[in-house]
Amino acid sequence: MGDVAMSVPVLGRLLQQYPEVRLSVVTKSFFAPIFNQLPHTQVIAAKVKQEHKGILGLRRLAKQLKELKPYAVADLHQVLRTQIIDFFLKTYGIKVARIDKGRAEKKKLIQHQKKQIKPLKTTHQRYADVFADLGFPIDLNTDLPVIKPSLSAAAQEYFSESDKKVIGVAPFAAHEAKMYPIHLMRELLLKIAKTNRFSVLLFGGGKKEIEQLDQWEKEIPNTINLAGKQVFSEELAIIAHLDAMLAMDSGNGHLAALYEVPVITLWGATHPFAGFAPFKQTEQLQFTPSLEKYPLLPTSIYGNKILPGYEQVMHDIDQNQLIKTLLQVVKLN
Hints:
Rossmann fold; alpha/beta; six-stranded parallel sheet; 10 strands; 35% helix; two-stranded parallel ribbon
């Protein structure tokens, strides 16, 4: 989901800078609400477990795309499935450009030896480069009006306490190495509650995650678990109206950034220098472990590998500084 969300600021600026362009976005139907803020954009559902399953299914999808008579196709994913679709599209004479994921640079960044790390090209810029290859260079530094989806009457209740700022907390990630330890997150949430200046909305998914968030809702004042209680489009609308989001290196931070919500991100085995930081979020909002103490960081691009001795890298994140930063971004300090 994070990769999908990161495409939206790029696509929005493409449409702003080239108003004659019309977009057809191929993605899972679940992700369609993410693109609602884009003008002149239709979403085509990729049903990869149904009619578009396997090579024959992908050929069927390619034929469907051919019927649109596209000027060109931008492959922002560059995995086996999209490569197969690209092949079929090229046989139809359609121009295709693919993302350069910078695999060699990223491999060097995570090498398990002492190193001097430096920021790599951001994923947003890599997406923009694909369109430049098709003849549409994009300036990502331009401002874009933010269109926030409307809240339902029920969702407005979460924002009803005028004396408190509403923040989202998304404490989970796809891999343990990217996730702030559960006991420390509980400790942090208790400290946030103790300030009595915030209403906290918890985001997540999956049975075990929901059980954990339900427990925190019972234990911690001014804390509400939204996981499993909203359809995705409603959850997205709520995220758009937050005063701030606290997230891991995961999708929820990228969703919040779409609506220019300040996003504080906690990093573990991964690092913002790999290019996956939420769009236009400052370095001060990226909380990373000490590189002096853990000189081999980052040890993974996607957070799926834990290096021995690096299991507790996130324990050193300064919670008091984090809360101070949170107060600053919501203008309470």
